[in-house]
Amino acid sequence: MGFRWRWRWGRGCRRREEGICPRMENLTTLDELRTGEEGIIVKVLGNGAFRQRLLEMGFLPGTRIRVIRYAPLEDPVEYELKGYHVALRHEEAAKVLVEKCPKSS
């Protein structure tokens, strides 16, 4: 994550009172979500063509994403965002930071 990320979103975040900053304890990568869990995309890591392709497919900060199901051998994983389904490998999903959504009851 690096120094810049911790400084920007860490304890000293001035915008936390406004509800804009994600809470660090809820921050995780997309590959760590389980079936049925939802999250909000915070940042797409990496650079180059792969990152650009994810952004073009709708993996934009602030977008809600839900895990639909895992393949029989755990790779790839099917996700739903913006009304469509997409499958990503674990190493690709590890480059997407998300904030876990609280479970609705």
How does this model look, in words?
With 105 residues, the chain is an alpha+beta fold. The protein has one domain: Ferrous iron transport protein A (FeoA) (SH3 type barrels, Roll), CATH 2.30.30. It is built from three helices and six strands. A six-stranded antiparallel sheet has the order 1-6-2-3-4-5. The radius of gyration is 14 Å and the shape is globular. The model is unreliable at 1-18 (pLDDT under 50).
Defining traits:
6-stranded antiparallel beta sheet; SH3 type barrels; disordered N terminus; globular; 105 residues
Summarize the helices and strands and which ones pair or pack.
Layout: H1 2-9, E1 27-29, E2 38-44, H2 49-56, E3 64-70, E4 77-81, E5 84-88, H3 90-93, E6 96-100
Question: Which CATH-level-2 architecture?
Answer: Roll
Low-pLDDT runs of 5+ residues are 1-18
- What distance separates the N and C termini? 32 Å
Indicate the proportion of strand residues: 25-35%
Q: Which shape, going by the Cα principal axes? A: globular
Please give the order of strands in the largest beta sheet.
1-6-2-3-4-5
- The CATH class is Mainly Beta
Quote the CATH topology.
SH3 type barrels
What class, by secondary structure content? alpha+beta
* Rg calc: 14 Å
User: What is the residue-mean pLDDT, rounded to a whole number?
Assistant: 80
The portion of residues assigned to helices is 10-25%
